[in-house]
Amino acid sequence: MNRLSMVIALFASSAVLAQTTDELEKRERCAVRVSIALTGKAPTPDMLSSVDPQSRADTLIDTTDFIERYARFINTQFNRAPGASAEEDAPYYLAWEVLQKRKPWKELFIGAYRVEKNAADTVVVVPDPEGLGYFSSRAWLKRYAGNEPNGVLLSAAYRIFNNTIGLKLVPSTNAPDADITAAGRSAVGCRGCHYDGMFALDLAASVLPKRIDGTGGAITFEPPTSAPVTMMGGHTVGSMRELVTTLVESESFRFRTCRLAFNFLFGRNENRCEAPAFDRCMKEFRSEQTLQAAVASIVKDPAFCQ
C-alpha cells in the first residue's frame, strides 16, 4: 500500500470512528432524555447502551416512578393548590389507581370509585357502583362547594369543565360587594359565562348536587331538582353523570389529555412544528383510551430526542 492509500484509509477509519462516536453519544443523550422525562431518574446502564432508547418507553411508563410522577402532576393541574387534607387531593389517589391498572383514562372522571379515608385514617380508593370518578368523593365536593348563597355548586361545575376539557374562565369582577346571586350573574358581563355560553356554569351547576350549610360549618349535599338543560352545542344533560360523560366522550377531552401529556414531558404546550406528534397522540389515545398510550406516542416520536 502506497503512502496515499494509507492516508486515505486512515482518513476513512477516522471518519467511521467519529460517526460511531457521534451515534453512541446521540443514543446516550436520548436515553437520558427519555428516562428523566418519564421517571425523573437517570437511565440504567442497560438503557444507556440500547440502540433504541425510545423503545423502552412502554416499560418505563409501567414503573412506579412514572405512575407517582404523573399522579402528582395531574393533582397539581386539577387543583388550584394542595389540599388541606390528604383526601382533598382525590385526583392523585384515583390517578394512581387508574394508571397502575392501565384503565381507560376516562375512568378517572366517570369510573365506579370513590376516594375516602378508611378506619385506619388512610386515604383509599374503593369501588362504588354509584361513583363518578373523584368528582363524587365527598372531600372533593366539599372542597369545591363554593359560596353561592343558594348552594349552587358553581365552583365544582367550573372544576369539572377545567379538569376534563381544560376550560379556563376569568371572573369579570372581584369586587367585594359584587352581586353573586343568580340575578347578579344574569347581568351583562356575567351571563355570557353563567347562562349563555356553550359551557354555561349555572346551567351545568343546576344538575349537580346542592350544598346545604349546617351549623358549625357542616356541609351536606342534596340531589338536584332542576329539569334537564341543553348546553355544550346542543347536548341535553339532566345529571352530574350525564354532564361528565358527555365531556369525556368529546374531542375536547382527548385534546386536553394530549396537551397535559405534552406539559408533563416538556413543561409547556405543544408548538406548531410538533403538530404531527400531537396528532399521533390524539389518534393513539382515541384508539387505546389509556393515558399510557398518549404519553408513549409522544416519547416514541422521532423528534422527541432531536
State the major sheet: 2 strands, antiparallel
Distance between the termini: 41 Å
Structural class by helix and strand composition: mainly alpha
Mean pLDDT: 90
Widest sheet, order of strands? 1-2
Strand content: 5-15%
Query: What general outline do the C-alpha atoms trace?
Result: elongated
DSSP strand tally: 6
Low-confidence stretches: 14-18
Using the CA coordinates, give the radius of gyration.
Answer: 25 Å
Report the helical percentage: 40-55%
Tell me what you see in this structure.
The protein has 306 residues and is mainly alpha-helical. It has 4 domains: 22-61, no CATH class; 62-143, no CATH class; 147-249, no CATH class; 251-305. Helices cover 51% and strands 8% of the residues. The protein contains 15 helices and 6 strands. It has helices at 3-39, 45-48, 57-61, 64-78, 90-100, 107-110, 138-143, 154-165, 182-185, 191-196, 201-205, 240-248, 251-266, 275-288, 291-299; strands at 113-117, 123-127, 210-213, 219-222, 229-231, 235-237. Strands 1-2 form a two-stranded antiparallel ribbon. Helix 4 (64-78) runs antiparallel to helix 5 (90-100), helix 13 (251-266) packs across helix 14 (275-288) and helix 13 (251-266) packs across helix 15. The longest helix is centred in the first third of the chain and has 37 residues, at 3-39. The two termini are 41 Å apart. 37% of the residues are buried. Mean pLDDT is 90; it is low at 14-18.
